[in-house]
Specification:
Elements: E1 52-58, H1 65-79, E2 84-91, H2 97-107, E3 111-116, H3 121-131, E4 136-140, H4 151-160, E5 165-169, E6 176-178, H5 181-197, E7 209-213, H6 214-220, H7 231-241, E8 246-250, E9 252-254, H8 263-283, H9 288-295, H10 315-341, H11 346-369, H12 378-403, H13 412-438, H14 457-460, E10 470-472
Parallel strand pairs: 1-2, 1-4, 2-3, 5-8, 6-9
Antiparallel strand pairs: 3-10, 4-7, 5-7
Helix pairs in contact: 1-2, 5-8, 10-11, 10-13, 11-12, 12-13
Membrane topology: Single-pass membrane protein; Multi-pass membrane protein
Transmembrane segments: 319-340, 346-364, 385-406, 412-434
Family: Belongs to the glycosyltransferase 2 family.
């Protein structure tokens, strides 16, 4: 057996498979060059390294692994026109998985084996992808639940430069799926939460059938933390926040009845991952603005037309996020109002409660409801947010004035109910103004968009410790 050079962490490169028909793409560097429409440069398919590296993360899969590898290898040899490698990432298996993988690797030169001492799909993919020399990286589950006919449509947009990531989806109208109602319900519920609370636009975060361009992966992977199943979601959310294009392929998918994945435990871990990722985005642990400047595709020239402006996603998703922020703001408003009501008159208490919550509410809606990041037009947004605050103040103050205009002093619960109702009405007006006035882009963009700045060293910092990474190939 030959081992990875521990000093460099590079995987050995098996001999390339015979190339298919000449590529239609010109040989180019894999840097973030821009062409009309700010598209990525096509992948150089005449490279001396395998164009495609398909990773199969496994844990105790000795029964199914060999058949999976032979089936996938035969499919790629017969249909994929470029060189490829299949990398088995063994995650600390305790059965004969590693031996089965090594046995196949001795026979098939395009199969490599990586053994890791730690469990976790995210950990395996991050470590293998960061040291892979291939320009296109993919992974699929060992059970091959996804029909391999979808592999070509998955990879083509990445090779052409049209897209940055590609995922299989089981949740579109054109997908064909065979699985139980429990898994279907949990999957759809989870993706609904992602779209509603985190503003995700992809339809299926969990399908084990994905691919990414290596130049993009090298920028994003050091900023991911999850080592298990949430890794997929974290990578996709981060990609969208950075302005990358995610291509979706409807798949034919058959559930593996013998799968060892605990879907309830996985779902709970995913919810915790959502909370942690939201904190990371808010706290600035992930340098989204810098990543977006380096990686994002610029807007098309027509995007400057007012009729092409989008205020940040679907109306339904905006309402869910705005409502969640509004509930938190209303609770905070009531708490602050009650605190100041014991110290001063109701009008001043109302003013202070609204003022304290207004700035935070505007900032939260700017970032999460309407998906606006960076400092561009931030001053205008907050100024107009204060004007909207003035409208809310007028409504709630007017309601209190009317209430206290009656001869009898109102009961405390009546006062609270009145300001709550007025605040809810102000919230509805606020949403309409935010969506159609405050957070609408203004001004005309230049006709041409400058190429994104190259990624800085700080973005790629975070080299992977490869001390536990061993690669074994045929003698």
């Amino acid at each position: 057996m030959t081992f990875t050079d521990q000093a460099t962490g590079t995987l050995p490169q098996p001999a390339a498979t015979p190339a298919g028909p000449a590529s239609e793409f010109a040989a180019t560097a894999t840097a973030f060059d821009t062409v009309p429409g700010n598209r990525r440069s096509p992948i150089d398919t005449r490279t001396t390294v395998p164009v495609l590296d398909v990773t199969i993360p496994v844990y105790n899969e000795e029964r199914d692994l060999e058949a999976c590898l032979r089936r996938l290898h035969a499919y790629l040899r017969s249909t994929f026109p470029h060189s490829f490698r299949i990398t088995v990432a063994d995650n600390a298996s305790t059965d004969g998985t590693l031996e089965a993988a090594e046995r196949v690797a001795r026979e098939l030169r395009e199969v490599a084996v990586v053994h890791l001492a730690e469990k976790g799909r995210g950990n395996a993919l991050r470590k293998v992808w960061l040291v892979s020399p291939s320009p296109v990286l993919a992974y699929m589950d060992v059970d091959l639940s996804t029909d391999l006919a979808a592999l070509g449509p998955l990879l083509a947009p990445l090779i052409s430069g049209h897209s940055d990531l590609a995922i299989g989806t089981r949740l579109t109208r054109n997908s064909r799926v065979v699985r139980g109602p429990k898994r279907e319900f949990i999957s759809r519920s989870y993706n609904f939460l992602l779209q509603s609370l985190m503003g995700a636009h992809f339809s299926d975060a969990q399908c084990g059938f994905k691919a990414i361009r290596a130049d993009v992966a090298r920028q994003l992977l050091p900023h991911t933390l999850d080592n298990a199943w949430f890794f997929d979601t974290e990578l996709l959310v981060l990609a969208e926040k950075c302005g990358l294009r995610v291509h979706e392929v409807p798949v034919d998918w058959t559930d593996d009845p013998d799968s060892s994945v605990d879907i309830v435990q996985t779902a709970v871990a995913d919810l915790r991952g959502m909370a942690r990722l939201s904190r990371d985005l808010v706290s600035g642990r992930i340098p989204v603005d810098e990543l977006r400047a380096a990686l994002a595709r610029g807007p098309l020239p027509a995007a400057s037309r007012p009729q092409e402006q989008s205020p940040g996603g679907s109306l339904f998703g905006q309402l869910i996020r705005f409502g969640s922020i509004g509930i938190a703001s209303t609770v905070a408003y009531l708490g602050i109002f009650l605190i100041f009501r014991g110290l001063t008159d109701p009008q001043l208490a109302n003013f202070l409660a609204l003022l304290i919550t207004a700035v935070a509410n505007t900032a939260a809606n700017r970032r999460f409801t309407f998906g606006i990041q960076g400092r561009s037009e931030a001053a205008r947004h907050h100024f107009e947010g204060l004007l909207v605050f003035g409208i809310g103040l007028a409504l709630t103050s007017g309601a209190l004035a009317v209430l206290h205009g009656f001869p009898a002093a109102p009961a405390p619960w009546v006062e609270i109910a009145t300001v709550t109702a007025a605040n809810l009405a102000a919230t509805a007006i606020k949403f309409l103004l935010f969506r159609h006035v405050v957070f609408v882009r203004r001004g005309r963009l230049p006709a041409t968009v400058a190429a994104p700045a190259p990624a800085t060293a700080g973005l790629t910092a975070g080299a992977v410790d490869t001390s536990n990474l061993q690669t074994e190939t045929a003698k």
